[in-house]
Design brief:
alpha/beta, five-stranded mixed sheet, 17% strand
């Protein structure tokens, strides 16, 4: 029987064969009314395909600014989600997309859609997969409270993999770090 760690390695290798894209967002917070204020998409070769600040519908709270450093001044002339989303979905269409904590980023994208009265697609036109959950399986630290493998922050996963990339809480840097973690898993024995 194959171990869960070995299965995670095989899954990562299979994902890399698909030449996935990688996506990360930064947001106005973690709440139900938070929205996307930065998004980046990188291809598997490490080329930035899309990278943009996004002007939110309301000011960025100070707590969020302290995390990622994105200020209201920085986004005042940025395009809105109404302009950004058509470009993003065109790039992602038909692709496998690796996201560290996919559930969170997809929720924030859906919430941002709701802010603008845009319908969120019932069937996404791309195939997201969660690098965070795959890394949890790979790392193998069991969480008896949840009955699953313990999730690790992007920063901690990068440190554990000894990847010398920053977790700056900016979409571009975090996308590159997520990509490096998937490659690290795939290149493990």
């Amino acid at each position: 029987m194959i171990s869960d760690r070995k299965q995670a390695i095989l899954t990562a290798r299979q994902k890399l064969l698909l030449l996935p894209l990688y996506l990360d967002t930064e947001t106005t917070g973690l709440e139900r009314d938070s929205e996307v204020i930065e998004i980046c998409i990188v291809n598997d070769q490490g080329q930035v395909i899309f990278d943009s600040l996004v002007r939110p519908s309301r000011p960025i709270p100070p707590d969020a600014m302290r995390v990622h450093g994105i200020t209201n001044e920085m986004v005042k002339d940025a395009p809105t989600w109404l302009t950004v989303w058509p470009q993003v979905v065109t790039i992602l269409a038909g692709q496998h997309v690796g996201i560290y904590n996919a559930e969170f980023d997809l929720r924030m994208m859906r919430q941002t859609h709701e802010h603008y009265g845009m319908p969120w697609p019932f069937n996404l036109p791309f195939q997201p997969f969660c690098i965070m959950k795959l890394y949890a399986q790979y790392y193998g630290e069991w969480n008896s409270r949840t009955g699953s493998y313990r999730w690790h922050s992007l920063d901690l996963a990068g440190q554990q993999c000894r990847i010398p990339l920053p977790n700056s809480h900016r979409a571009r840097d975090d996308t590159f770090l997520a990509r490096a973690i998937l490659h690290h898993i795939a290149n493990s024995e």
